[in-house]
Amino acid sequence: MIVNTRGIVLRTVKYSETSLICDILTEKMGLQTYIISGVRKKKAKVGASLLQVMSILDIVAFHKNNREINRTSEIKSAYVYREMPYDVVKGAVGLFMAELIQKTIKEREENQPLFEFLYHSFTLLDVHQSSISNYHIGFMVQLTQYLGFMIDDNYVAESRCFFDVRAGMFKKERVANLDGLDKNLSQALFAFCQLPLEETHLVQLNREDRRTLLHRMIRFYQYRIDNFNELNAFKVLQEIF
After folding, report:
1. Domain boundaries in the chain?
2. Among 1.20.1440.120, 1.10.730.10, 3.40.50.300, 3.30.1510.10, what is the CATH number of 84-240?
3. Is the pLDDT of residue 43 over 80?
4. How far apart are CA 159 and CA 134, in angstroms?
5. If one looks up domain 2-79 in CATH, what number appears?
6. HSE-up (13 A, CA, CB side) for residue 207
7. 181-233 pLDDT, tens per residue?
8. Which pLDDT score is estimated for 241?
9. Which ranges constitute the DSSP H helices of the chain?
């Protein structure tokens, strides 16, 4: 079967002297793995630079039932990043997002709303002109809507104003350990649940609060996804922000 689809590159691994194996989240087939031959030759038809993590592609691929790795017949760029390749901060945020997607999405089936959300998230990050210091947190919060374990938006300032990480909801009293958020960070988390990504800069957080909230969100994911370990890109973000 020949499939025409858009895709977002999540991971690449060298294979033989000239080829790459790429994990690509596709619009029509979910997460797929492709072997792409000859991309590391000097006169390659498809250059390795086109297959960087976060690249958004138009792909024509051959798919066979029950085959773990398939082959492509045509690849071209579906979106050319304007700022991401030259902006260290945006690049780091984008890599964090790509690693998060790689560790959470395993389905090999079409999910149009999820793909559109991810496409919008990467392209918006590329052209966004306001501060992006909160962008990765907003993305992490909103991605839960597409993973089947979204945060319960039962926040009420007077009565349910403390977020319980394990339960995934706001409660009357604070949980007194790493599963709890104080009142200010709980309010900030609720704001991230309500705001679109382009407005995440409106949430006021200092460096320590941002780090704490991100730690708690990672913990939130760990409770819900098997073998969800620390994100390597998180260390880079700590240095940048």
Report:
1. 2-79, 84-240
2. 1.20.1440.120
3. no
4. 26
5. 2.40.50.140
6. 5
7. 999 999 999 999 999 999 999 999 999 999 999 999 999 999 999 989 888 88
8. 66
9. 88-104, 112-127, 135-147, 183-194, 207-224, 232-240
